UniProtKB/TrEMBL annotation:
Pfam families tied to this protein: NMT1_2
Keyword DNA repair: no
Protein name (Swiss-Prot/TrEMBL): ABC transporter substrate-binding protein
Major localization listed first in the record, in broad terms: periplasm
Originating organism: Anaerobacillus alkaliphilus
Protein localization: Periplasm
Claim: Repressor is one of the keywords in the record: no
UniProt signal peptide: 1-20
Cellular component, GO annotation: periplasmic space
Domain of life from the UniProt record: Bacteria
Protein family (similarity comment): Belongs to the bacterial solute-binding protein SsuA/TauA family.
Coiled-coil portions: none
Record key words, sorted: Signal
Positions of transmembrane segments: none
């Protein structure tokens, strides 16, 4: 009987240990967040770093990343519950709010804090001056989008009226702008990277100025989620934002080469030297946000830019569409 009791005891202890092991191993659950990004861009390097360097994984987050190609498509995906979080320009949240959305998208984390486009000329210019655009044909970005609104803002800053002082073309689809310039349309064009750098390497154009360096701080691209999702998933978004903040700090302290190597898997068709050049351009002008907190002065600057472009449907208070609680928690 004693031997039999000992066997039962050992069996029970083994079973208990197994249960404890299972409990411990599953105590940290992994939450999947579906992220819809407006485009695939080196401009968003900290997001890809957070994935490749395992910062999301450390926080128990698995990212299901989809590129939805365009602000309208990205916002529609978020509102239709096709994504939990959208990476898109903050201006889209203002457009939706102005339409009376019952469950508006709320901006909770910044990713980029300047414009990401560059002014490219067809001919090389040694001593560029913005006044050289007067009377030229300027191939701008899509009307109503942040790139075009910032582009017009910078032109006005330099005393150029976009509608009167040059021939402004802004009716070409985003994806066709580079090919339109390459085929001979325009003397100047507003381009994102890596296209601007690739044009230089191929002799198709020459980078003469940065709209990001001229625009001032704006909530250019960031993460937003519907208000109801934030209310139900505050802890998950806190861990998401903590991972993002780790990546932002990592980008800030790492070399251009280290950053390029980290994000290269997301840009397998882009030459490594081009990736490094683009990262250096964005990092040197402070385009990558160093904190997820969206600043109120940046929010107000966004309103000024939109209002000047005639695209501001209404002024929306910072507190109405920006959640700072999550960013404050992870940065303290």
């Amino acid at each position: 009987m004693k031997g039999f009791s000992k066997v039962i005891f050992l069996s029970l202890m083994t079973s208990l240990a197994a249960l404890l092991f299972v409990g411990c191993s599953s105590s940290k659950e992994t939450d999947t967040i579906r992220v819809a990004e407006v485009t695939r861009s080196i401009f968003y390097a900290p997001q890809y770093v957070a994935i490749s360097e395992g910062f999301f994984e450390e926080e128990g987050i698995e990212i299901d990343l989809t590129t939805t190609w365009g602000g309208d498509t990205t916002m529609t995906t978020l509102l239709a519950n096709g994504a939990d979080v959208a990476l898109v320009g903050a201006e889209t949240s203002i457009y939706v709010y102005a339409q009376g959305a019952n469950d508006p998208p709320i901006n909770f984390a910044a990713l980029t804090q300047t414009d990401g486009t560059f002014l490219v000329s067809r001919e090389p210019i040694e001593n560029f001056d913005w006044d050289m655009l007067r009377g030229s044909t300027f191939l701008g970005q899509r009307k109503g989008g942040m790139p075009q609104m910032v582009g017009e803002h910078v032109l006005r800053k330099h005393g150029i009226n976009p509608q009167n002082d040059l021939n402004l073309i802004q009716n070409i689809d985003f994806g066709n702008i580079p090919s339109a310039f390459a085929s001979g349309t325009g003397q100047f064009v507003q381009l994102f990277e890596p296209t601007a750098t690739q044009f230089e390497l191929e002799g198709l154009g020459h980078i003469v100025a940065s709209f990001g360096a001229e625009s001032g701080t704006v909530p250019y691209t960031g993460f937003m989620a519907k208000q109801s999702y934030i209310e139900k998933n505050g802890d998950v978004l806190e861990r998401f934002t903590r991972a993002l903040y780790k990546a932002q700090q990592w980008v800030q302290s790492s070399s251009t080469e280290e950053i390029a190597k980290s994000i290269q898997p997301f840009f397998s068709d882009t030459d490594m030297e081009v990736i490094k050049s683009v990262v250096e351009n964005y990092k040197s002008q402070g385009s990558y946000a160093t904190s997820p907190r969206i600043k109120e002065e940046a929010w107000e600057n966004l309103h000024i830019i939109m209002d000047q472009a005639g695209e501001l449907p209404m002024h929306v208070n910072y507190q109405d569409l920006v959640n700072t609680d999550i960013a404050d928690k992870v940065t303290k």
